[in-house]
Amino acid sequence: MDDAPQPPGPGPGSAFLLAQIGAHAAMRFAERIGELDLTPPQTGLLRAVAAAPGRSQQALATVLGTPPSRLVALVDQLDERGLVQRRRNPADRRLHALHVTEAGEKLLQRIAEVGRAHDDAMCAALDDAERATLRALLGRIADEQGLTPGVHPGYRHA
Amino acid sequence: MDDAPQPPGPGPGSAFLLAQIGAHAAMRFAERIGELDLTPPQTGLLRAVAAAPGRSQQALATVLGTPPSRLVALVDQLDERGLVQRRRNPADRRLHALHVTEAGEKLLQRIAEVGRAHDDAMCAALDDAERATLRALLGRIADEQGLTPGVHPGYRHA
DNA sequence: GTCGAATCGTTACAAGACAGAACGATTCTC
DNA sequence: GAGAATCGTTCTGTCTTGTAACGATTCGAC
After folding, report:
1. Which CATH class name applies to A14-144?
2. Alpha-carbon distance A55 to A59, whole Å?
């Protein structure tokens, strides 16, 4: 753990608060899904596979912004636990089409529950109207910054 | 780079957006101060030293949440570049009191400029009133979550 | 058709960051 | 004055990560 900058004049700026709270949110989320024996990268991959079944590993690597060699290990871990499957495509036997198993689907439901609880905990300081306002502002920022929906760049500790 | 979760029902939840945007903000900031030949941990340390001159390395390690062994390398780097100084305390020669040099002060001013530009770029999607609203909401979240002002937990790539 | 270039997944490798424990030097306590 | 405690440093082992080669398979040109 380290620290970073603190911006302009009076108190921290929005960018620093975003980075600080974002790192905190990521850590807390990692703790929560750790109880399901999952790491954040594993969770992200599982969600990405479920979002569009049958994609190749290379396609996923491109979308997730990770080197293909890293994806191999990730898929291995999920495969060993029976959460995803590699199916050879008869038309093009080079690529492995990834699919989520039933066990994977079940786990995804639990992940969604964890996500809701985490979301609620992070916004504990805000009432319902304020949460809606925050979410709208963040959505506009994410859009303007060109962030891919559902993809989180740069997690630590696989 | 990896990815992470995407929360509840309709679209991403606030917690995911916070983590996603926060990581993005941290990366962009790292790029900006990279042009000043600084890493985020170095920048954070420099700011921390300036915030309270004369503190010991151990005191800083506690505040920043980093192991003392890591701080040594960081202080070395800043010392070699003449940005901070280790001054032995005559009263207690065990500890090294850290101080920012004039060159360090000058660099801090440039860092502040970079921080303002970064802040502005991150909020480009919002008008002034919306930025104030966002900042207020984020400030309350950071406070409620017990985050230490000015300290950013967990940066990657020193 | 066939030969070469390109693509996919995998493996191997090297580089770097990190935390934790062990180590001298110095100071505090009794 | 002797032992425990503190500070900074060094050392070591582990882990993660990106890059580069490697077979297998398919596509394109001729």
Report:
1. mainly alpha
2. 6
All structural domains of chain A with their residue ranges: 14-144
Q: What is the pTM of this model?
A: 0.88
For A13-37, how does the pLDDT look when each residue is reduced to its tens digit (9 = 90+)? Answer: 999 999 999 999 999 999 999 999 9
Burial (CB < 10 A; 0-12, 13-18, 19+), residue B145, is: middle
Near-strand C residues (CB closer than 7 A): A 1-2, 56-59, 61, 68-69, 71-72, 75, 86, 94-96; B 41, 66-70, 91-94, 155-158
Alpha helix stretches (DSSP H) within B65-101 = 68-80
Torsions phi, psi for B54 (to 5 deg): 90, 0
Domain B18-144 bears CATH identifier 1.10.10.10:
yes
Helix, strand and coil content of chain B, in percent to the nearest 5, comes to: 60, 5, 35
- Separation of CA B77 from chain center: 16
